[in-house]
Specification:
362 residues; mainly beta; 20-stranded mixed sheet; 3 helices
């Protein structure tokens, strides 16, 4: 065997040994973490993986994980992050997530994506052309999480506890590929300017496709000082140029002593249209069985639309106090102008003012 042949053989043996060491020793886990840190740093993420143990071919685990993204005000801390290459799975234990809003939106041209010719890329156009990497996402499991959203100067505080999130990949034979994202959490606090607004629970699931998002079911149980209600919703967003959106949600009140509401009180809202350009149709229908005071039941029906520069109520009908009120109007954003017309008929509001009859108010 020539000297060159021996050198090639030795080089191949050394490379194989190093490769095996990266796969079956903690060295590979440490190196993978270092590479990930470098990659995330390019997007302004600061990451500290703390400790690492386990082999890449086993179940590599990182402890004391901390991520910060100063531009968005987000901080993520997790005592444990485990990977499984065989199961293609990521497991995160007890993450603490905080998102702090800055209270201002800066016009920073360096943060705006640009095209090849230097032109600014429109966010909505980019979203309409987006293809989600559903086939590349691993299975994800997050348990015992905690999330906090804080507004500027702590004016707003939303807190979620016992957060459980999972993402399950669809069958490999599915075309197009899909995944299912599920969420369950306790809404432990909603505060505005230091005032407690309510608590509740959140649960739901979202089907994820390459070019669409399907909200299968989202349920939010809210309990406030004067009202308890359940909000359920379903909808679909398609990732096409016009970003078609369809959304339906229902608000059902729960009977609370002294609240003035009954179990039958509900409001149903339907939204359909496109986000780019903004053109949405709105339909609202609600009923309040017991009504307010001695006024009897209240029924509300509304149809309207939301466009780029105008919000229009085409028709609204409120039936209460033995009569009805018809409303229509519009609000133009650019002109900051509001036009409203109201017509009432056989309306008796003895408990408020001594008015009974009909008329037109503009």
């Amino acid at each position: 065997m020539t000297a060159v042949g021996r050198m090639s053989k030795y080089a191949a043996a050394i490379a194989a040994t190093v490769f095996a060491a990266l796969l079956i020793t903690p060295l590979g886990t440490w190196l993978a973490g270092a590479i990930l840190s470098r990659m995330l740093a390019a997007d302004d993420w600061h990451i500290d993986l703390g400790s690492s143990r386990g082999a890449l071919l086993g179940r590599p685990t990182y402890g004391g994980v901390r991520l910060r993204h100063p531009p968005s005000g987000m901080t993520i801390e997790a005592p444990r992050l485990a990977l499984s290459l065989w199961d293609y799975e990521v497991e995160v234990a007890a993450p603490q997530v905080e998102l702090r809003l800055t209270g201002r939106q800066e016009e920073d041209s360096s943060a705006i994506p640009r095209g090849e010719a230097g032109a600014e890329v429109d966010f909505w156009e980019a979203a309409g052309e987006m293809t989600l990497p559903v086939g590349l996402l691993p299975n994800i499991s997050i348990a015992d999480g905690h999330f906090q959203l804080r507004g500027a100067s702590d004016s707003l505080h939303v807190e979620l506890a016992d957060v459980a999130v999972s993402y399950a990949r669809g069958a490999s034979s599915e075309s197009p590929p899909s995944g299912l994202l599920t969420l369950a959490a306790t809404l432990s606090a909603i505060r505005h300017l230091g005032t407690d607004l309510g608590t509740g629970n959140v649960r739901g699931s979202l089907a994820v496709f390459e070019r669409a998002l399907d909200l299968n079911d989202l349920s939010i149980d809210l309990k406030a000082q004067v009202l308890s209600a359940t909000v359920t919703s379903r909808g679909r967003l398609e990732l096409s140029p016009e970003l078609p959106l369809s959304l339906e949600f229902t608000i059902r009140s729960k009977a609370e002593e002294g609240s003035g509401f009954s179990v039958g009180d509900s409001v149903r809202v339907r939204v359909s249209g496109s986000l780019h350009p903004l053109s949405l149709q709105l339909a609202v229908k609600g009923a309040m069985r017991e009504g307010v005071g001695e006024g009897g039941p209240v029924n509300v029906t509304l149809r309207g639309r939301v466009e780029e520069e105008v919000v229009v109520v085409d028709s609204a009908l409120v039936m209460a106090a033995g009569g009805e009120v018809s409303l229509s109007g519009s609000y133009r954003v650019g002109e900051d102008s509001l036009n409203v017309a109201a017509r009432f008929r056989a309306l008796s509001l003895d408990s408020l003012v001594a008015v009974e009859g009909g008329g037109l108010l503009e």
